[in-house]
Amino acid sequence: MLIFAACLAIFVYGMVASMLGTINPGLAATFQLTNVQTGYIALAQGIGLVIASVSVGPLLDRRGKKVGLLLGLGLVTLSLLALANAASFAVIAVAMAVLGMGGGIIITGANALGSDVSESRRASVLNFLNVFVGLGGFATPFIAGNLLGGEPVRVAYTAAALTGATFLVHLFLRIAPPAAPPPGQKASAVFGVPILYVLATATFLYTACEFGVWNWLAKYLIVRGLPAATALNILSLGFALGLLLGRVIVVPVLIKIQPLTVTIASSLLMALTTFAILRTSAPALIGPLVFLAGVAMAPVFPTTIAVVADVFKERSGTAIGFTITCGFSGLVVSSPLIGWLAGPDPAGLGTGLLVLPVFSVALLAVNLVLRSKRRAALKAPSPSA
Fold this sequence. Notes:
- This protein is an all-alpha fold.
- It has one domain (2-171, 187-379): MFS general substrate transporter like domains (Growth Hormone, Chain: A, Up-down Bundle).
- The chain is built from 15 helices and no strands.
- The chain starts with a helix and ends in a 6-residue tail after the last helix.
- The mean pLDDT is 84.
C-alpha cells in the first residue's frame, strides 16, 4: 500500500516537473514572453518548491505523510486550474509558485513514504518509485504534443483532472501515522551533522541540471529550427523516457553496487551528454543524446535521498525535506541564470544552457567528497539532542 500511494503521488510530481517546459512555448507565444520573463516564472516555481520542502519535513514527522500528500495534491490541483485561467504574466507567476509548493510537498512526502518500505534496499526502492517521475514527465509533453496540440490551457486542465483524481484516491488510502520520536530528541539535531550539507549540495546541483532540461530544452530545440511537436516529443520520448528507463535499469544494479559509485558515474555522464547536446550540429543526434542525458540523470536524485535516509535513521522527514529544499534551490538559481545568460536573443539559449555541463562537473566533485565521508557518517550514532 505504501508503494502504491507513493507511486501515484510521484507520478503527479513528474507532471509538475515537466509542466513549465511543456507549456513554455505556448505561453511565450500567447503572452509574448521573453527568455528573462520565462526565467522569472521558473524562479516563482522554484521559490514555491523551496518554501514547501523546507516546511513539510517537520509536518511529516509530526502529522504523518498522508496529511502532507493530501495538502500537496490539493495545492497542485488548484494551481493548475488557476494556470488554465491565467490572463496575465503576474497570474502565471503566482500559479507557478503555488504549483511549486504543491510539487515540493509531494516529492518530499512520497520519498519519505518510500524510504519506509525497505531499509536494506532503500536505494533500489526509491529508484523504482522515482520511475514514476519519469512516467509523469513523459506523459505530459507527449500528450500535450500529440493529443492537445501544445495548447497550455488544455494541458493544465488535463493535469488538474488527473491530480484531482489522485487526491481522491489518497483520501481513502490507509497510511500509518508517524511514530513517536525517541525521548529527548529534537528535530534541529539533524542540522548539526556536516554530511547533511554535502548531500544538500549534491541535490542542489542535480536539480539545477534536471530542471534546466525540463524548463528550457523544448524552447532551445525550437530555436534551433525543430517543429514544436518534435521538440516536445524529444522532451518526452528522449529525456523523460531516459529518466524512466534509467531508473528501471539501475534498480538491480544498486543491490550489488554502492549508491555513491552509481552517482559518481552518473554525474560524469551528465557532463558529457549535456555538453554534447549543445555542441552537436547534427539534428538527428539530438534525440539520442537527450535520451542518454536522461538515463545518466536517472539514478542521482533518488539514490542521494536514499543515502540521506540511511544516515538519518530518526527525523528522516526533516533531513529529507531539507535536502530536497536545497535541491529546489538549484531550480531557483539555474533557470533564471539560464534566462539571464541567454539574454533577449532566442539564439542565446545555447550559451545559457552551458550551465548544465558546468554544474554536472561540480556534482561529480561533490559526489567524490560524499563517497569519502559516507562510511564515517554511517558508523556515527544517529543525531540526537
